[in-house]
């Protein structure tokens, strides 16, 4: 074949492939996420090799996965998307090694990596070679964890070893009706349970949203999922070499904006907690936030916001008792923010950890310890706001000064102590209360005395554990001012 004939044949084949690829699920999904015309495929002609005669499946260009790179809002991002229309998106060795290559290129450049999962699992006919490919993928993801942002999409089935891979991602966006993440087939699990378990719910987005926390975001459809990918990426700083710099955009929202609603909230703090959603809407630029894993460990809120254009991670007490799930979620989020140079703001109103025999038999001690370790090991700017109670181990675990918080503010009505005033009064003054002519009045007096002399935030401020007691309405301005000051101390952090 002459050079001219080769060129003509190549152009014809390329046009045919381009035309057919436009309608494949993998290309359609990537196109929805990336900037128009920016995605470039890598290894589009890689095919699997026949290893036995057990199955007669002809090789297909790309081997059921599209890999490559492009830009999202102008930022370099690497990606892979499995194609369920090619042998069910099954993972053979060539399929897996394409993903590994793209992932390694992302690590080398410090760019985020996206993987859209939709697969029947390991390719059976390849036997051990399929498992070798799966092992290489798991190993590469372990290397990438904490080095580059890993964001996955569960667009279809994701079983077995592939589910292990998905569980290593920092954030997972699930399609509500199609996404399925499970160690064993739902049908097999339902049969083994023998109790009428609904296979449709096993490994579903709803299960992972409520019980495992692996579903960071649940999207109604692929269009919403693409939007969520772009939103998450917008909060993550860009790496230059081995350095991360803070992500800041121009913001037209007034950095000195005050909100009298916060004064009203502070005046009415009660045992049910503070409305952290309202506080977040008050302090964030334009009231906008992106909450992650909202249904899992719902006693703790984890979210991204911007403060005067600066991307910030927020960990906030939604309820006064911290659960095992809440502690796990918070620790994972703190580690992510630490890895990728995202300042952390905490909003504390917690009287302790969950109480009960079941809680003591759970992993709450390990989870709480892990939360302490995550904060203690964090080297990004950290600001704490005590908006209500900060009692005992909950005070310590949620970004306390002793764990390295740079600045800690408190509202005037905050309570900071070893235990709540009601309990402390009964422990410290039991005899005085019992012997009083009016025990109820005596008890109330002792509770007030404890609040005024021990748990009042002025006591902690006098000991240097609180940097300033602030007017609640000015919280946004004080947080932004503190972050501006702290950024001078954290120009760059070398992550090499």
**Mean pLDDT across all amino acids:** 89
Distance between the termini: 51 Å
Number of strands: 22
What are the segments in which pLDDT stays under 50 over at least 5 consecutive residues?
none
The CATH class name of the largest domain reads Alpha Beta
Shape: elongated
Structural class: alpha/beta
Helix content: 40-55%
Main attributes?
2-enoyl-CoA Hydratase, Chain A, domain 1; alpha/beta; single chain; 8-stranded mixed sheet; 7-stranded mixed sheet; 2 domains; 22 strands
Q: Concise description?
A:
The chain is of the alpha/beta class. A hairpin with a 2-residue loop joins strand 13 and strand 14 (310-317).
Can you walk me through this structure?
This protein is an alpha/beta fold and 496 residues long. It has two domains: 3-236, 2-enoyl-CoA Hydratase, Chain A, domain 1; 244-411 and 470-494, Alpha-Beta Complex (2-enoyl-CoA Hydratase, Chain A, domain 1). Helices cover 42% and strands 20% of the residues. The strands form five sheets. Strands 12, 13, 14, 16, 18, 19, 20 and 21 form an eight-stranded mixed β-sheet that branches. Helix 2 packs across helix 8, helix 4 (128-144) runs parallel beside helix 5 (160-167) and helix 15 (421-428) packs across helix 17 (439-455). The protein is elongated. It starts with a helix and ends with a strand.
């Amino acid at each position: 074949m002459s050079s001219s004939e080769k060129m003509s044949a190549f152009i014809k084949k390329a046009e045919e492939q381009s035309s057919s690829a436009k309608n494949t699920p993998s290309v359609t999904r990537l196109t929805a996420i990336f900037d128009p015309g920016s995605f470039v495929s890598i290894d589009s002609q890689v095919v699997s090799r026949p290893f036995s005669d057990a199955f007669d499946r002809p090789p297909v260009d790309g081997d059921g996965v599209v890999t490559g790179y492009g830009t999202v809002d102008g930022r370099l991002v690497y990606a892979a998307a499995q194609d369920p229309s090619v042998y069910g998106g099954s993972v053979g060795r060539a399929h897996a090694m394409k993903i590994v290559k793209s992932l390694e290129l992302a690590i080398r450049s410090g760019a985020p990596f996206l993987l859209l999962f939709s697969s029947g699992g390991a390719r059976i006919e390849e036997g051990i070679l399929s498992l070798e490919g799966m092992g290489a993928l798991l190993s590469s993801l372990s290397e990438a964890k904490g080095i580059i942002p890993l964001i996955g999409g569960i667009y279809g089935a994701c079983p077995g070893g592939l589910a292990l891979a998905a569980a290593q991602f920092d954030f997972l966006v699930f399609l509500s009706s199609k996404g399925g993440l499970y160690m064993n087939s739902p049908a097999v699990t339902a049969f083994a349970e023998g109790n009428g378990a609904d296979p449709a719910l096993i490994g579903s987005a709803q299960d992972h949203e409520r019980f495992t926390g692996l579903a960071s975001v649940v999207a109604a459809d692929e269009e919403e999922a693409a939007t969520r990918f772009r939103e998450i990426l917008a909060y993550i700083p860009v790496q230059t070499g081995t350095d991360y710099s803070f992500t800041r955009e121009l913001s037209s929202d007034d950095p000195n904006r005050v909100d009298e609603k916060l004064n009203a909230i502070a005046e009415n703090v009660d045992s049910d907690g503070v409305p952290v959603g309202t506080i977040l809407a008050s302090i964030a630029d334009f009231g906008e936030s992106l909450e992650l894993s909202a249904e899992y460990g719902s006693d703790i809120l984890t979210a991204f916001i911007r403060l005067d254009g600066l991307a910030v991670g927020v960990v906030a007490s939604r309820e006064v008792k911290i659960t095992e799930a809440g502690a796990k979620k918070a620790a994972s989020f703190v580690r992510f923010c630490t890895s990728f140079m995202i300042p952390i703001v905490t909003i504390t109103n917690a009287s302790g950890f969950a109480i009960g025999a079941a809680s003591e038999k759970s992993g709450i001690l390990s989870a709480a310890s892990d939360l302490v370790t995550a904060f203690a090991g964090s080297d990004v700017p950290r600001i704490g706001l005590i908006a209500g109670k900060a009692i005992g181990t909950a005070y310590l675990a949620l970004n306390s000064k002793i764990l390295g918080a740079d600045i800690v503010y408190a509202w005037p009505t905050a309570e900071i102590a070893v235990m709540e005033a009601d309990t402390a009064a009964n422990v410290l003054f039991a005899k005085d209360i019992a012997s009083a002519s009016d025990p109820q009045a005596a008890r109330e007096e002792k509770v007030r005395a404890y609040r005024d002399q021990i748990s009042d935030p002025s006591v902690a401020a006098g000991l240097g554990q609180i940097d300033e007691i602030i007017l609640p309405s000015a919280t946004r301005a004080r947080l932004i001012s503190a972050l501006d000051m702290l950024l001078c101390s954290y120009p760059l952090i070398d992550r090499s």
